[in-house]
């Protein structure tokens, strides 16, 4: 489809998509369209050349291996969430809070990552899980750690003509691994996060043998809390260590104030979420929820 300023392609295979991206390096990908179309409806922009990826079967796949899931970049949330939730229940619960059912039937992981928003909900979880992105350009595929994809506000390490083909998510390696995911938004349903916290903690004999911590909404990109992780790694799982790790969050992030939350609120809630994770793991009988949702 073409007019004077706009062109639209709808490839039917991965090889067609790759070639179109090589031939049209400025093209914008459209998967579910639930983010990119806002540029038309809210900003009245023309998108120029667009490439719809929803008809590319190779991007709609879901594979479950012994050690990982491989999720096609254009597979809608609704299609894979139950499989993921079986291994990571809190990740599944969080995805159930992305937009509405209509958004989850349409929106994709590739779009959530490719949008590179600091408040996209899945990137902090994927970073804490050490997920990998398979990026394709022509017939070449390279794999990067997802944390290396986000470079600066809305800037990624994706090269010209490159696109996300799939996302690889490691499965839990042991029963000692706990994934805690917290989405903080003004409304429970269908709202954008002010802060999204993920704590991926392995605790063996009351010692934190592995900690990966990542947040959204705390910086210009979704990012790991390296200082916080260092305060946790190899340490006993005690209140004193949690307090030290909470303090370290101030070295990891300098959050901004905006319409969703003030910078002070963001830091306070981030620290409180680590406390909440500690209580939920160390005292599972304690009810940390304010409200029980039906
Ligand atoms: C009402 C509403 C509620 C929402 N609620 C939430 C929410 O709670 N949490 C949340 O995180 N988001 C939310 N969103 C945003 C959006 O739904 C998600 O980010 C969704 O995952 C985007 O996926 P998509 O397939 O629709 O992306 P698209 O809109 O198709 O694309 C988004 C961006 O990613 C790029 N892209 C798409 N596919 C690829 C690829 N394979 N490789 C590289 N780049 C690619 C596009 O070019 C574009 O820049 C909401 C949106 C709406 C309209």
Average per-residue pLDDT, rounded, comes to 96
Task: Kindly provide the name of the CATH class of the largest domain.
Answer: Alpha Beta
Q: How many domain modules?
A: 3
Looking at the overall shape, the CATH architecture of the largest domain is 2-Layer Sandwich
At the fold tier of CATH, the topology name of the largest domain is Uridine Diphospho-n-acetylenolpyruvylglucosamine Reductase, domain 3
| Secondary structure: helix percent | 25-40%
| Integer-rounded radius of gyration | 20 Å
Multimerization status: single chain
Major sheet: 5 strands, antiparallel
Number of strands: 14
**Poorly predicted spans:** none
Bound compounds, please? Answer: flavin-adenine dinucleotide
What is the straight-line distance between the termini? 46 Å
Taken as a percent bin, the fraction of beta residues is: 15-25%
Strand order in the sheet with the most strands: 4-5-10-6-7
Order of helices and strands: EHEHEEEHHHHHEEEEEEEEEHHH
Shape type:
globular
Annotation keywords:
single chain; 294 residues; alpha+beta; Uridine Diphospho-n-acetylenolpyruvylglucosamine Reductase, domain 2; Uridine Diphospho-n-acetylenolpyruvylglucosamine Reductase, domain 3; Enolase-like, domain 1; 3 domains; 4-stranded antiparallel β-sheet; 10 helices; 14 strands; binds flavin-adenine dinucleotide
């Amino acid at each position: 489809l073409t007019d004077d300023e706009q062109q639209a392609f709808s490839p039917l295979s991965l090889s067609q998509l790759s070639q179109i991206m090589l031939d049209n390096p400025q093209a914008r990908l459209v998967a579910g369209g639930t983010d990119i179309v806002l540029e038309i409806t809210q900003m009245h922009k023309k998108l120029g050349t667009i490439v719809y990826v929803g008809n590319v079967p190779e991007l709609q796949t879901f594979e479950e291996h012994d050690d990982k899931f491989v999720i096609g970049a254009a597979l809608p949330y609704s299609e894979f969430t139950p499989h993921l939730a079986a291994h990571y229940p809190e990740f599944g619960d969080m995805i159930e809070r992305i937009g509405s059912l209509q958004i989850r039937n349409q929106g994709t992981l590739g779009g959530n990552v490719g949008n590179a928003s600091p408040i996209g909900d899945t990137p902090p979880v994927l970073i804490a899980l050490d997920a990998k992105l398979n990026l394709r350009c022509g017939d070449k595929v390279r794999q990067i750690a997802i944390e290396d994809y986000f470079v600066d506000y809305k800037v990624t390490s994706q090269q010209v003509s490159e696109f996300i083909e799939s996302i690889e998510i490691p499965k839990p390696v042991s029963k000692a691994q706990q994934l805690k995911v917290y989405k903080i938004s003004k409304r429970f349903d269908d709202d954008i996060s002010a802060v999204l916290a993920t704590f991926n903690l392995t605790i063996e004999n009351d010692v934190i043998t592995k900690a990966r911590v990542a947040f959204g909404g705390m910086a210009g990109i979704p990012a790991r809390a390296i200082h916080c992780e260092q305060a946790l790694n190899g340490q006993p799982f005690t209140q004193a260590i949690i307090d030290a790790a909470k303090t370290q969050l101030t070295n990891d992030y300098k959050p901004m104030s905006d319409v969703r939350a003030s910078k002070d609120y963001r830091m306070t809630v981030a620290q409180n979420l680590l406390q909440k994770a500690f209580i939920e793991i160390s005292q599972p009988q304690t009810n940390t929820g304010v409200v029980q949702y039906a």
